[in-house]
Design brief:
Helices cover 25% and strands 27% of the residues. By secondary structure, the protein is α+β, with helices and mostly antiparallel strands. It has two domains: 83 residues, Nucleotidyltransferase, domain 5 (2-Layer Sandwich); 107 residues, Sandwich (Substrate Binding Domain Of DNAk, Chain A, domain 1). β7 and β8 form a beta hairpin. The two termini are 37 Å apart.
Length: 225
């Protein structure tokens, strides 16, 4: 995973200044030794490795609270202003693609790659696969794999009642956009008839609203000493 992160960032180890340890597993000597062997650098344990993620979550919560103007955020005015002015960059955590038929198999054709800065949009022209095709299904996939079965289907839309006698390989334009809030908008256009289908998909990998409210009530009852 460490090497994969470097490849995705287009960096090599000579461009990395420090290797910061984060997470409970970095308490293990074997983890530190492995990182040193991979990077050629002595890992830096200056941070409280078991608390870093929680502190980051607290900072993010502070940013959200400051922007909403919540009265419960008990910080000085200059701290509130600093939190409000922090610029957050959201990226696509998983690739978004369309299921397409290629020869005799169905594959994932990626439109918005993993780690793309959001919001982002991409479009591509596909082709019908048989003569007189009456409808087209656009199936949206999440994942990096080429094989459809190794990806997650997160939604679909259909273009119905295509024109009669539609030739094979007629063009279908598909546009996929993803907002920084995780909302995915998919549009499919039959370029012959002008018929269009559209779907909105809210991709959520976290807790539901009910679960968040329940956990918030539990946290309120905690006494931190």
């Amino acid at each position: 995973t460490t090497q994969q992160v470097l490849r995705q960032a287009g960096l090599s180890w000579d461009r990395v200044d420090r290797v910061l340890l984060v997470g409970g597993s970095t308490h293990m000597p074997a983890t530190r030794q492995m990182l040193q062997e991979i990077s050629g650098k002595v890992p830096d344990n200056a941070l409280a490795v078991s608390e870093v993620v929680a502190r980051g979550a607290a900072i993010h919560a502070g940013i959200v609270a400051a922007r909403r103007g919540e009265a419960g955020l008990t910080v000085d005015a200059d701290v509130r202003e600093a939190l409000e002015n922090i610029v957050e960059i959201n990226v696509n955590s998983h690739s978004l693609g369309i299921e397409v038929k290629k020869d005799s198999e169905r594959v994932n054709d990626i439109l918005i790659p993993k780690n793309t800065q959001l919001p982002s949009a991409a479009s591509r022209v596909y082709r019908t696969v048989v003569e007189n095709q009456s409808r087209v299904r656009v199936k949206v996939l999440q994942g990096e794999a080429h094989q459809v079965d190794a990806c997650i289907s997160i939604g679909e839309c259909w273009i119905e009642d295509l024109p009669p006698n539609l030739p094979k390989l007629s063009p279908i334009q598909v546009r996929c956009s993803c907002g920084s809030d995780g909302l995915i908008d998919v549009m499919a256009l039959d370029m012959t008839s002008g018929k269009m289908a559209r779907a909105e998909i809210h991709r959520s990998s976290g807790l539901s609203e009910e679960e968040i409210a329940r956990e918030a009530e539990w946290v309120k009852k905690l006494e931190i000493q």
